[in-house]
């Protein structure tokens, strides 16, 4: 029989080694068929591949952006430490130094090749004082255009750091003059040339440095984004009255210790034992911990949404592949009639899927790299981090490719199996596929409902360890999405009846036919409706999550960022300056504030890095307040406890460490470990929530800090804010290098940052909508193809082209309307889950807020997308050649 | 009264570099109340002629006048309206809309034309009775046999009281019994309801129901046969003789 079929098909049996050359011919002919099929249906191939491309591109772009951000942060600290294997810093993290006697203690330890000291201070070029502004991003505050003076021992420093000298000279060993080496970028920006005298701001006036050298902005030149000047240690000591203090000691291990992880770890332990608990001995990159910690939640959110994009992409692939099989039913039936086995049919389809997966993934990687550029730029703005390293993680690349190919293959398995079930006889006449019987749809509905419930239980009812919250939460959301999808087919009938009168009203008589058509090809329609549902529900739930966050942030901003004016300086201010501000006309109250880093006592270096906000209990409540977790009745007592030395701990920290009012919290201080009582728990988004608020007295007594970084002023009612602002600037602006900002302006900037951060998530949500739109196009194109004869008949009995278009638009409109209803319903459910998930992950006490606009937006998106996506298929349908169509068997 | 007239109609198709003359200077007229069959060997152009007569396709040359309108002078929308209001089509494969019931399929041309279907309910009921499907009015096509579906198609073709009914192999997909029923229905609609019918068929038996049979060969109308010309009323035999002659000359 095989001989009769023909040369190629006679090669389909493999017997023994002698046939091995024929095996190659068979394989190549199958490949040729698969490739030809993709090539012949270019539009379909493109549309299907787009789903893979988008999914892979989004995953890769987010992976690269996240990885680059983290890598940049680590690179900056890592490269700045150059050859150092370890770095010693005070455990109190206040930014206050330690006695240089510690240097002698560590030099003597076996395994230490060199101990390199440094001390630093933040200042500003005198010329920049006027234009200085306080900047911030998701990764914390940045200094605007501040200059980091990095004091080094020129002789010892060369052992740890490598400078790329471009012009002039480097600092000489033993040099103590006011010489400074700048980075090329900074020097160019500020027009500093060799030999120039450069004035910098000091706590009590200005100082002058001479530019003696220019280095490249790499290695240590990356510090403070290149706004760094290297000076002798003693210069910082003298100018900033830090005599005898160091901020860090970089340790270069011996070659032997450096090469062995075990020995390096042992050296680290030895150093810890030697220097005691008042110091941290870290690997250089860990210095970026506080920033990476603050970005972690945001980045997790991005990663989560990238996976949602893939989920939606998978839909499209499955949808498109199912349609491809239907489209080629006749061809496959013919092959089967000629003798191609079921296994070979499966192989043919899977080869096609693999080709599509490879092509789609390849282009996905290409577009992902392009998309990553934009995403990185956006992340840099949002996180106020300079992205110096574009990190394309091999793992991320591999994952994206694997995912793209994998999803394509998995998604095409079922359609491929269906292809093997095509009977040669039935396939020779193209007929719409029989809709599955009611039983699978009912089963799917029940299973789907169960999935949704299980998913919700995981989020609401199952207590999860912090380490797995994100993974389990993501999985729970997937399960819910899958469940909702399974519920669609059975619900379609009911929904169609519900929607038909509306569609008829909108599209007239053609609407009756069009709306009714969605009952055909239920599987395909269900998938398309489900894709729309996912897209719409994403938009709504992200909108709700953003709104809930923004509402809470607004409430926090309105409560905690109180007063009318904020006075800041690039250099810290003396607290006495507050009384001068208070004496100005119109000023009712003034309260100081100061941020610095702290560390929990008996924590490891992997513990949370915390921000301490020092406030004056006597004056703070006249200007601002907090949102307390405790009842209002306790407020007077809380305030008293705060004044007596208690802490107001953020909800995030309280959740993390399981704290409540009345507990104590131990911190590493300059006077050793100190325990502080907790006066209350407050909502605080400062430092992404990792913040403790304490009396200013604690700061002075236990951390040795006496200056402040801001004053917040409350004005008497009716006072002109701008007039007072001007008065402060005129009187003190120049001499103290002040920046005065209205709280209104500061609040607006915070809101703008939040909007931008969430705006990125909205962009990602729109990816889901785009993929859903592709699904609609695919479905309708397939419908037009399958119903050519019917369309031809309708045209022949008098339907105009315009009426055909309206009919197809009506069908799309029905899909859109049903997708919108499902999407809104599921979106409301999902938004609650998202907010709950965010509460668990971040510890913020978010109040659920579902903006009505999000629901309207979801509805509008579904309807508009379905109509726009249907335009081309509708046009194609209207161009059907009547004669060809009615002859089509 | 002439309902349909084709004057020197030609139709050419280009297949690559080759020009195919599907129809060559065909003259053809149909009078009101006539039942005309078009026959010919495969590739003779009979379906092509039917498509041109119904405005489904445009002629390359000549003129087709239907309901006093010259089709070549009308744009696509205008031709569509002629099809909608003046022509009823019956296809070999029924071409019913699967999501509509039998009754809804019959009413479809009225719906398309924007007419109030309720006002035409009596007409629809009458047609359902004519095709003996009153008790099947709420059934969808997949719940009807082939013959029943074709009867629905006939009712649909008649619902607008068209000037002419064009049928393309209406019995081609039916068994002999169902086919006979369809042909009797067509004959009835012609005799009793005075509809004008043009039917393309390759089946001599089907053609024997017509008043007149025209024969095409190689795109040309070469012969006509009136039923009254058949000896001893053996219409079918006469038709077969002509067809046999045509096919043997190929």
For the termini of chain A, the CA-CA separation is 29 Å
Largest interface, C-beta within 8 A: A-B, 27 and 30 residues
Order of helices and strands of chain B: EEEHEEHEHHHEHEHEEH
User: Helix count of chain A?
Assistant: 29
- Percentage of residues assigned to helices of chain B: 25-40%
- Number of extended strands of chain B: 10
Query: What composes the largest sheet of chain A?
Result: 10 strands, mixed
Q: Which structural class is indicated by helix and strand composition of chain A?
A: alpha+beta
End-to-end distance of chain B, in Å? 36 Å
Beta-strand percentage of chain A? 15-25%
Helical/strand content category of chain B = alpha/beta
Strand order of the largest sheet of chain B: 6-7-8-3-9-10
Global morphology of chain B: globular
The level of helicity of chain A is 55-70%
Shape of chain A: elongated
**What percentage of the residues of chain B does DSSP assign to strands (E)?**
25-35%
Low-confidence segments of chain A, given as residue ranges, are: 1-28, 430-437
Number of strands of chain A: 24
Mean pLDDT of chain A: 80
The DSSP helix count of chain B reads 8
Low-confidence stretches of chain B: none
């Amino acid at each position: 029989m095989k001989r009769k079929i023909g040369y190629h098909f006679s090669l389909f049996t493999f017997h023994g080694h002698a046939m091995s050359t024929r095996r190659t011919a068979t394989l190549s002919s199958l490949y040729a068929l698969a490739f030809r099929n993709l090539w012949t249906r270019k539009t379909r191939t493109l549309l299907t591949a787009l789903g893979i491309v988008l999914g892979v591109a989004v995953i890769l772009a987010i992976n690269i952006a996240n990885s680059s951000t983290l890598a940049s942060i680590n690179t900056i600290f890592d490269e700045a430490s150059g050859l150092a294997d370890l770095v010693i810093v005070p455990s109190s993290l206040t930014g206050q130094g330690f006695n240089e006697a510690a240097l002698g203690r560590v030099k003597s330890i076996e395994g230490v090749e060199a101990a390199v000291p440094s001390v630093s201070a933040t200042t500003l070029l005198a010329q920049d004082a006027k234009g200085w502004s306080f900047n911030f991003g998701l990764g914390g505050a940045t200094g605007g255009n501040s200059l980091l003076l990095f004091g080094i021992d020129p002789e010892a420093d060369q052992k740890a750091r490598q400078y790329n000298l471009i012009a002039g000279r480097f600092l000489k060993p033993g040099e103590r003059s006011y010489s400074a080496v700048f980075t090329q970028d900074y020097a160019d920006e500020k027009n500093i040339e060799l030999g120039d005298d450069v004035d910098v701001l000091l706590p009590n006036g200005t100082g002058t440095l001479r530019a003696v050298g220019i280095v490249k902005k790499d290695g240590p030149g990356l510090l403070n984004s290149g706004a760094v000047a290297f000076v002798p240690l003693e210069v910082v000591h003298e100018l900033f009255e830090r005599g005898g203090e160091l901020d860090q000691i970089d340790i270069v291990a011996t070659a032997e210790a450096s090469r062995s992880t075990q020995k390096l770890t042992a050296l680290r332990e030895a150093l810890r034992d030697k220097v005691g608990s008042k110091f941290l001995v870290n690997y250089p990159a860990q210095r970026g911990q506080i920033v990476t910690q603050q970005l972690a939640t945001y980045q997790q959110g991005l990663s989560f949404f990238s996976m949602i994009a893939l989920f939606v992409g998978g839909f499209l692939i499955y949808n498109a592949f199912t349609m491809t099989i239907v489209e080629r039913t006749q061809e496959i039936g013919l092959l089967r009639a000629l003798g191609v086995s079921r296994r070979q049919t499966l192989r043919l389809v899977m080869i096609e899927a693999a080709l599509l997966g490879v092509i789609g993934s390849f282009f996905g990687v290409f577009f992902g790299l392009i998309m990553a550029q934009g995403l990185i730029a956006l992340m840099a703005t949002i996180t106020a981090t300079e992205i110096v390293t574009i990190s394309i993680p091999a793992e991320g690349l591999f994952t994206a490719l694997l995912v793209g190919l994998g999803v394509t293959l998995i998604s095409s398995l079922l359609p491929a199996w269906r292809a093997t079930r095509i009977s040669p006889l039935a396939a020779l006449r193209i007929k719409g596929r029989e809709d599955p019987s009611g039983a699978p749809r009912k089963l799917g509905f029940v299973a789907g409902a169960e999935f949704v419930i299980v998913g919700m239980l995981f989020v609401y009812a199952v207590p999860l360890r912090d380490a797995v919250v994100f993974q389990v939460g993501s999985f729970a959301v997937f399960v819910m999405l899958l469940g909702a999808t399974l519920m669609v087919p059975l619900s379609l009938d009911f929904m169609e009846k519900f929607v038909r009168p509306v569609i008829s009203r909108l599209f007239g008589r053609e609407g009756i036919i069009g709306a009714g058509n969605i009952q055909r090809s239920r599987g395909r329609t269900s998938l398309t409706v489900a894709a729309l549902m996912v897209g719409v529900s994403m938009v709504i739930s992200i909108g709700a999550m953003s709104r809930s966050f923004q509402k809470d942030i607004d409430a926090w901003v309105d409560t905690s960022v109180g007063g009318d004016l904020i006075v800041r300086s690039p250099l810290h201010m003396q607290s006495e300056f507050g009384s001068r501000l208070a004496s100005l006309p119109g000023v009712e109250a003034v309260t100081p504030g100061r941020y610095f880093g702290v560390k929990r006592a008996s924590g490891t270096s992997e513990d949370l890095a915390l921000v301490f906000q020092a406030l004056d209990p006597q004056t703070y409540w006249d200007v601002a307040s907090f949102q307390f977790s405790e009842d209002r009745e306790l407020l007077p007592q809380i305030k008293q406890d705060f004044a007596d030395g208690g802490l107001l701990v953020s909800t995030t920290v309280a959740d993390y460490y399981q704290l409540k009012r009345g507990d104590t919290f131990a911190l590493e201080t300059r006077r050793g470990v100190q325990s502080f009582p907790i006066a209350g728990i407050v909502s605080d988004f400062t430092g992404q929530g990792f913040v403790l608020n304490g009396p200013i007295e604690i700061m002075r007594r236990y951390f040795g800090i006496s200056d402040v970084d801001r004053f917040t002023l409350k004005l008497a009612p009716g006072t002109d804010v701008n007039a007072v602002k001007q008065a402060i600037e005129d009187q003190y602006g120049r001499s103290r290098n002040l920046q005065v900002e209205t709280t209104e302006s500061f609040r607006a900037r915070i809101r703008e940052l939040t909007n931008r951060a969430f705006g990125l998530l909205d962009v990602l949500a729109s990816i889901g909508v785009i993929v859903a739109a592709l699904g609609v196009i695919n479905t309708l194109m397939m419908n037009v193809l399958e119903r050519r004869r019917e369309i031809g008949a309708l045209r022949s009995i008098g339907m105009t082209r315009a009426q055909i278009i309206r009919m197809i638009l009506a069908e799309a409109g029905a899909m859109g309307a049903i997708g919108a209803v499902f999407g809104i319903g599921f979106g409301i459910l999902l938004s609650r889950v998202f907010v709950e998930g965010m509460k668990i992950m971040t510890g913020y006490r978010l109040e659920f807020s579902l903006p009505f606009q999000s629901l309207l937006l979801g509805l509008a998106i579904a309807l508009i997308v379905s109509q726009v996506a249907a335009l081309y298929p509708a046009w194609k349908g209207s161009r059907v050649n009547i004669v060809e169509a009615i002859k089509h068997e | 009264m002439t309902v349909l007239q084709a004057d020197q109609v030609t139709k050419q198709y280009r297949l690559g570099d080759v020009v195919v003359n599907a129809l060559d200077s065909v003259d053809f007229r149909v009078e009101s109340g006539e039942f005309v069959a078009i026959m010919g060997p495969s590739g003779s152009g009979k379906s092509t002629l039917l498509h041109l007569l119904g405005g489904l396709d445009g002629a390359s040359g000549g003129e087709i006048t239907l309901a006093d309108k010259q089709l070549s002078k009308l744009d696509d929308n205008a031709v569509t309206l002629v099809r909608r209001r003046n022509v009823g089509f019956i296809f070999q494969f029924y071409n019913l809309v699967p999501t509509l019931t039998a009754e809804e399929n019959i009413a479809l041309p009225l719906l398309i034309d924007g007419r109030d279907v309720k006002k035409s309910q009596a007409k629809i009921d009458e047609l359902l009775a004519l095709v003996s499907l009153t008790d099947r009015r709420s059934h969808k096509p997949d719940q009807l046999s082939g013959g029943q579906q074709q009867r629905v198609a006939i009712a649909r073709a008649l619902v607008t009281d068209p000037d002419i009914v064009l049928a393309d192999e209406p019995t081609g997909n039916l068994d002999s019994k169902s086919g006979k029923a369809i042909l009797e229905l067509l004959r009835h609609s012609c005799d009793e309801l005075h509809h004008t019918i043009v039917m393309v068929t390759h089946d001599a038996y089907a053609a024997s129901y017509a008043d007149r049979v025209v024969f095409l060969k190689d795109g040309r109308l070469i012969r006509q046969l009136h039923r009254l010309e058949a000896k001893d009323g053996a219409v079918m035999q006469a038709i077969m003789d002509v067809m046999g002659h045509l096919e043997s000359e190929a």
